[in-house]
Design goal:
The chain is an alpha+beta fold. The protein contains six helices and ten strands. The chain has a four-stranded mixed β-sheet with strand order 8-1-10-9, covered by helices on one side. Strands 2-3 form a two-stranded antiparallel sheet. The protein is globular, with a radius of gyration of 16 Å. The chain binds iron/sulfur cluster (3 copies).
Length: 177
């Protein structure tokens, strides 16, 4: 089992519905976020291209945030999902500094928080909140070890990129291009 997400940058319209759904589902405090939208412009005028990317924790297969955590609060669970156990977190911030994607934030209650792939919903057979609300259906979540899963098929069929692979993190968000 290897949970992963594919994001179709050709279909994303940057509406931020996924961001709002995440905030509500996970009671993210005002002023912080577990996921965010990046607008990226490439090319040279007049041949410019605009890409929207819905970004969050990459649930890296080689996560530096887990390696550097002194208490074991940051850990890997089923399907490779990287989680933080708030009760074990001392708020030292080492994981925030180690993440190349800036995917973590200091929760006002003293622990570090980030995307969980909505594992509480996944365990109930539901999709992550962001996936379930996206009006253009451009987010695909599932088991990359299952060749018949939608995420596997999208990654196999489409050109894609992963971000900052040079960091050696083996990220598990696949941006379809
Ligand atoms: Fe893109 Fe879907 Fe998020 Fe809207 S809800 S920004 S279309 S990923
Ligand atoms: Fe850790 Fe950052 Fe990778 Fe998420 S994206 S698993 S927080 S290193
Ligand atoms: Fe671990 Fe918490 Fe320190 Fe992050 S802030 S490295 S989760 S103890």
């Amino acid at each position: 089992m290897r949970y992963a997400m594919a994001i179709d940058t050709k279909k994303c319209v940057g509406c931020s519905d996924c961001v709002i759904a995440c905030q509500l589902e996970n009671q993210v405090p005002v002023g912080y976020c577990r996921e965010w939208i990046v607008e990226s412009v490439s090319g040279t005028y007049p041949h410019l291209a605009l890409e929207f990317r819905s970004e969050r924790c990459h649930h890296c297969a080689k996560p530096p945030c887990v390696r550097c955590c002194p208490t074991g609060a940051s850990h890997v669970e089923e399907g490779g999902v990287v989680l933080v156990e708030p009760g074990q977190c001392i708020g030292c911030g080492a994981c925030i500094a180690s993440c190349p994607y800036d995917a973590r934030y200091p929760h006002p209650e003293g622990y570090v928080d980030k995307c969980t792939f909505c594992i509480h919903r996944v365990r109930e057979g539901k999709q992550p909140a962001c996936v379930s609300v996206c009006p253009t259906h451009c987010l695909y979540f599932g088991d990359l070890d299952d060749p018949n899963s939608e995420v596997s098929r999208k990654v196999a069929e489409r050109k894609h990129k992963r971000l900052k692979t040079e960091a050696g993190t083996d990220p598990q968000l696949y941006f379809l291009t």
